[in-house]
Amino acid sequence: MSSVEKVALVPDGARKAYDGLDSEASRNFHDTKHVSKNTEMHQTEGGFLKPLIFGGLDGILTSFAIVAGAAGGSMPIPVVLVLGFSNIFADALAMGVGEFLSSKAENEWILSERQRENWEMENYPEGEIEEMIDIYENRGMSREDATQVITTMSKYKDFFVDIMMAEELALRVPEEDHKIESMKEGVVMFCSFATFGSLPLLGYVIIPALFPQSEEEVLFSAACVITGMVLFGMGCVKSNFSASHWFVCGLETLLLGGACATVAYTIGQFVDSLIAES
To answer: What angle do CA 139, 31, 140 make, to 5 degrees?
Structure first.
């Protein structure tokens, strides 16, 4: 069995063909799925990518900013831990609730827009059909083809209203259980923020327990290494949902996060010097 035939038989054959830019394998997959049980799989995890990456980055950078600012300001370790953990979990809760409420509000607004489009379709279908024909014509279709396509789709009201939402307003209609999905996004945001935000602080807990004589410079260096590794790793994970190379995504995330941490450390040193002078 050739490699092309193997790709055609696996459930995510279309994705593997795309990753390898193998047009023959893609063609073979789409041909065979009509005579077999192959289904074209797409990455559905991307829906939680935003709260996962955003929450993780915000959490670890917030935590490391506290560590860096405390190190620049020469604060004692107990103060770093109290400020760090209390701030991380309070911010994580706020971020999780905020993600839930914002996602829920956006979905409710989209559904209200759908109700309006549905009302317009019921009361003046000719106008809505004409608008859609104009949109398709502006995108390159001939007037005749656009009219035929839109007239056919308009026979199926609910389907056509969803198409109107996408084409006219560039809005994706949420599922009926959108409140549950919004809650999931909030939970992902909270867990991601709290988990990644705790990592820079763990060195201040674990290392002193194993090596009681460790100096503060060692603890701060450990926090820097942990933060850098996690930032690079998060960038690599993000590359699974984009066309960029994993190393480029990892390096980009590391450099941007490092810039934020540098600012926090510099401000901590600057404020500490001002206090010392006064």
So the answer is: 5
pTM recorded for the entire structure: 0.72
Do the Cβ atoms of 173 and 160 come closer than 8 Å?
Answer: no
Q: How many CA atoms lie within 13 A of 277 on its CB side?
A: 6
Record the tokens describing residue 75, joined without a space: 């604060």
Q: In 3-state terms, what secondary structure has residue 76?
A: coil
Q: Torsions phi, psi of 211, nearest 5?
A: -130, 85
77 Cβ neighbours under 8 A, 6+ residues apart: 204, 208, 216, 219
Say which residues have a Cβ less than 8 Å from residue 185's Cβ, sequence separation at least 6. Answer: 47, 48, 50, 51, 99, 100, 103
Both tokens of 42, joined, read 């797409």
Quick one: which of 82, 85, 83, 70 has its CA closest to 216? 70
Provide the 8-state DSSP code for 270: H
Residue 15's H or E segment, with its range, is: helix 13-19
Q: The dihedral of CA 132, 137, 141, 143: what is its sign?
A: positive
- The tens digit of pLDDT for each residue in 18-64 reads 666 667 766 676 566 554 544 444 444 456 888 888 888 889 888 88
Q: Which residue has the tokens 């909030």?
A: 186
Residues 38 and 11 sit within 8 Å (Cβ to Cβ): yes
Which tens digit of pLDDT belongs to each residue from 166-201?
Answer: 999 999 999 888 899 999 999 999 999 999 999 888
- Alpha-carbon span 80 to 76, nearest angstrom: 7
Q: Which amino acid is at 139?
A: R
Q: How far apart are CA 85 and CA 205, in angstroms?
A: 11
How many alpha carbons lie under 13 Å from residue 114 in its C-beta half-sphere?
21
Structure tokens at 10: 């696996």
